[in-house]
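FAQ

Q: What does a record look like?
A: Structure on top, sequence underneath. For example:
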């Protein structure tokens, strides 16, 4: 068997998907694609333009008209890639707390998902890709050669997000982050279209009490098993 050409990594917020995805893609010389940035870009644009988050039709129209691009990093400020919306660099803007708070309702809209899923699928089918999200193994690329579902307790994930924000010098309160994360988990896993869940053929990896190096090692072993 050859190295898996399409690797899907799904899981809840702050379970370590981005770190694992980036490092695995680097190690294999694959494209790393974080689908969450697309949902975040639509949410950011809605907040910026004053489009009501509850207005499904207006949000879907916005998603249709918004040009989202992801490029290799143009700056050495800790970013893994540049995210552009209609040509504007929004790489850090999409990490704002108000985007975090509103991204799950936006992602639950069927029209928004249909549009973004089609773009993600087109990119993924080119192969040599590590694609990260909530529904990659179930909906976007069900034919992925290797599917990982990365999980961790909500307390551990909130702690990680808290530390990330502190490191970036942004205001952070653990309890608020924990509450917001619980709410996002609830919306993501109960929505009608493409809810967050592990594909039946996904390998579930628990990242509680395990550091990023150990997770990478574990997943690299799974890639090797698949290859041999
Ligand atoms: O970085 P974090 O894990 O907090 O979130 P993200 O991966 O950037 O995704 C942000 C939000 O976008 C999620 O809470 C989901 O609501 C949505 N999302 C989705 O619905 N489907 C995806 N494939 C990726 C993200």
């Amino acid at each position: 068997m050859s190295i898996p050409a399409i690797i899907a990594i799904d899981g809840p917020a702050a379970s370590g998907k981005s770190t694992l995805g980036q490092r695995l893609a680097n190690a294999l010389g694959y494209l790393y694609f974080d689908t969450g940035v697309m949902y975040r870009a639509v949410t950011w644009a809605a907040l910026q333009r004053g489009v009501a988050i509850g207005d499904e039709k207006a949000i879907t129209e916005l998603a249709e008209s918004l040009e989202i691009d992801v490029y290799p990093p143009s700056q050495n400020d800790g970013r893994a890639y540049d995210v552009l919306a209609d040509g504007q660099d929004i790489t850090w803007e999409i990490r704002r707390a108000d985007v975090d708070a509103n991204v799950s309702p936006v992602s639950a809209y069927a029209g928004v998902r249909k549009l973004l899923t089609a773009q993600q699928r087109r990119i993924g089918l080119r192969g040599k890709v590590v694609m990260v999200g909530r529904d990659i193994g179930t909906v976007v690329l069900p034919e992925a050669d290797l599917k990982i579902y990365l999980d961790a307790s909500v307390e551990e994930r909130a702690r990680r997000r808290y530390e990330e924000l502190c490191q970036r010098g942004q205001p952070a309160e653990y309890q608020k982050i924990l509450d917001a994360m619980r709410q996002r988990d609830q919306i993501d896993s109960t929505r009608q279209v493409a809810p967050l869940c592990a594909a039946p053929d996904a390998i579930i990896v628990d990242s509680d009490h395990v550091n990023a190096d150990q997770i990478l090692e574990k997943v690299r072993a799974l890639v090797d098993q698949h290859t041999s």
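Q: Is there anything notable about this one?
A: The domain at 6-216 is CATH 3.40.50.300 (Rossmann fold).
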